[in-house]
Amino acid sequence: MKVHMGFANPKRNIEQFKLEPGMEVADFGAGAGYLAVEAAEVVGKDGTVYVVDIQRELLTKATHLAQEHHVDTITFIRGDLEETEGSTLPEESVDAVIISNLLFQVEDKAAVAAEAHRVLRKGGKILVVDWRESFGGVGPQPEAVFHEDDARELLEAAGFVHFEDIDAGAYHYGLIFTKHGNK
């Protein structure tokens, strides 16, 4: 979906997430892969970005985007994040998780948060970006919007501690959490 590109700035969001070279990052529901490519450029050749999406078409788009940007440190996984161990990643195997423009789309939001908690190492961090509102149908349908307070509550219930907010643009909120409160 190209529409959200004009509203959320992947490069700026990743810069504010403060990833570091060599990190292992999971991008849940990565869509066309814009954030994954930005993350891969930061973590470099010693890091890995795992793109996890249920839609084959989006995995194909993300693969093409990575090829266009000459990024070869992305691993593509077809997985259902609403299933137990749906990302197929090992427990406590990544330093960071990205969940961008996904929560409004999934039914079992708690399952997605639990999967993020499972794969994230202690002291790891998670970035959640989602739509503030529908914006007259530009974003998700009004009943699908997953509000910032609900996202905070969801992630805290899954065992994360709110760390800071990021400026994700006029149409989105951005929240960073850590696992077990370690920074």
Describe this structure in words.
Residues 1-6 have low confidence and may be disordered. Among the domains are: 1-48 and 61-88, Vaccinia Virus protein VP39 (Rossmann fold, 3-Layer(aba) Sandwich), CATH 3.40.50.150; 120-134 and 154-183, no CATH class. The longest helix has 13 residues, at 56-68. It has five helices and seven strands, in the order αβαβαββαβαββ. Strand 1, helix 2 and strand 2 form a beta-alpha-beta unit. It has helices at residues 10-17, 34-43, 56-68, 109-119, 148-157; strands at 24-28, 48-53, 74-78, 94-100, 120-131, 160-166, 172-179. The chain has a seven-stranded mixed sheet with strand order 3-2-1-4-5-7-6, with helices on both faces.
Outline:
With 183 residues, the protein is α/β, with parallel strands linked by helices. Helices cover 28% and strands 27% of the residues.
Essential attributes:
7 strands; 183 residues; Rossmann fold; single chain; seven-stranded mixed β-sheet; disordered N terminus; 5 helices; alpha/beta
